[in-house]
Fold this sequence. Notes:
Blueprint: H1 2-29, H2 33-47, E1 49-51, E2 54-59, H3 63-66, E3 70-83, E4 86-100, H4 102-108, E5 113-126, H5 127-136, E6 141-149, E7 152-161, E8 163-176, E9 180-190, E10 193-194, H6 197-207, E11 211-212, E12 224-227, E13 231-235
Antiparallel strand pairs: 1-3, 2-3, 3-4, 4-5, 5-13, 6-7, 7-8, 8-9, 9-10, 9-11, 12-13
Amino acid sequence: xxxxxxxxxxxxxxxxxxxxxxxxxxxxxxxxxxxxxxxxxxxxxxxxxxxxxxxxxxxxxxxxxxxxxxxxxxxxxxxxxxxxxxxxxxxxxxxxxxxxxxxxxxxxxxxxxxxxxxxxxxxxxxxxxxxxxxxxxxxxxxxxxxxxxxxxxxxxxxxxxxxxxxxxxxxxxxxxxxxxxxxxxxxxxxxxxxxxxxxxxxxxxxxxxxxxxxxxxxxxxxxxxxxxxxxxxxxxx
Length: 237
């Protein structure tokens, strides 16, 4: 009799577990482009300050790929995306043939890109926003500021090596590994005298990178950096 009761209890328990598993599978199967769009929006808003954020998720014709987190395209645009000290304006990001980690997206709320065939990206970093970033950089230069002159950046400030000196760095921006934007000086002087290589390396190590696209949604690649009259234009090919 006891064995019979135990057998029934085990059978019922297994039935309950099987039902829970079926419900979980059905819940997970309910992946939609709109649901993914909403979750991406929630994640971006939780990490960034955004203005006029627009997200579009384009599924493949077959729902098979939607359930596996693969989409024909994901488009993100905003007037402004800001995180900590860096602000990017007029942002446009498009990922082609994007596969997201759907488990992380629905269980943890994380937007993790497993693969992306190609990204199209453009954004602007304005001079005022760049100066706000420089004010938070922990360097040996006080009152560090930047101006745009003849398609180059001109950094000025007070260099505190022993005692204050007037620092001037003129240079361009270069892309490293298609993600990081670094300032590369062509002329550096302190009170009109060239700054030695050792102190210069120390200054640059704390200044760079000025921007890292791996911190941006979909981790877009950067191929071009153009210095305009009052902003830096970042673009992919």
